[in-house]
Write a structure and sequence with these properties.
The chain is of the alpha+beta class and 235 residues long. Helix content is 44%, strand content 36%. It has 3 helices and 9 strands, in the order αββαββββββαβ.
Length: 235
């Protein structure tokens, strides 16, 4: 009975030690990957920031091209009266958003090389991070290397950041986080019609509830880029 009890105690101790060791490994790996995940997310956020900067620089050109196309391509173009201004009805507004995104994607593809490195159909941004901790008897230096990749599609920018930590210059398993940068309506902008634009709208059969005169205000949707669907890809 004593031998049996002793064996049971040894088995329980071994199980407890095994659980503790596994928990410590899991905790260590969780902390490690959580840090890399946050850095990968920040890489995607940096891509969004740079993309928005590029968009802001070319916004007026994009709106001018989109509105010019909308006037000639949306049929029928129907306006509704809203607070003494004219707004596109639901059908025309949906058509304008589609045209705007097409023009924006086209302009941004041509301009992105100022912030990203074009490689094939992708745009990449390589970045490094180094963290040094001074201890009493030694210095610990962590080196992180990452690549953020944008792959423009018809109406959005899939973005992925792959980051890995180097231990004694030996790379570890990378952490990869993907997201999608999309266009969304964020407000409104006012367009003052001139005589030439009024003439074109009238000639193309646009429908409006009040007589158009130079200075009539048209309200169009304002768009911005935002990041959604952020998720981690398994190692």
């Amino acid at each position: 009975m004593v031998l049996t009890a002793t064996m049971m105690m040894l088995i329980l101790v071994a199980i407890a030690l095994g659980i503790t060791a596994a928990s410590r490994r899991a905790t260590s790996r969780y902390t490690y990957n959580t840090g890399l995940y946050d850095l990968a997310v920040s890489g995607n956020e940096q891509a969004l920031f740079l993309l928005n900067q590029t968009y802001t620089t070319h916004r007026e050109v994009i709106y001018a091209r989109a509105f010019t196309r909308a006037i000639s391509e949306i049929n029928p173009m129907i306006f509704e009266l809203s607070c003494h201004c004219l707004r596109l009805d639901q059908f025309a507004n949906s058509g304008f958003m589609l045209i705007f995104i097409q023009e924006a994607m086209l302009v941004l593809r041509e301009a992105m090389s100022g912030s990203f490195t074009p490689i094939g159909g992708e745009y990449r941004l390589s970045w490094n991070l180094e963290s040094t901790i001074q201890l009493e008897d030694r210095v610990i230096t962590d080196i992180f290397r990452a690549v953020t990749t944008l792959t423009p599609e018809n109406n959005r920018f899939p973005v992925t950041t792959s980051i890995r930590k180097y231990n004694n210059y030996i790379p570890t398993v990378p952490t990869v986080v993907s997201a999608s940068i999309i266009w969304s309506a964020s407000g409104y902008r006012e367009i003052l019609l001139d005589a030439h634009t009024i003439s074109i709208l009238t000639e193309l059969g646009a429908d409006y509830p009040i007589p158009l005169v130079p200075g009539t205000i048209i309200i169009l949707d304002e768009f911005t880029l935002e990041m959604v669907e952020s998720l981690r890809i398994a190692d």
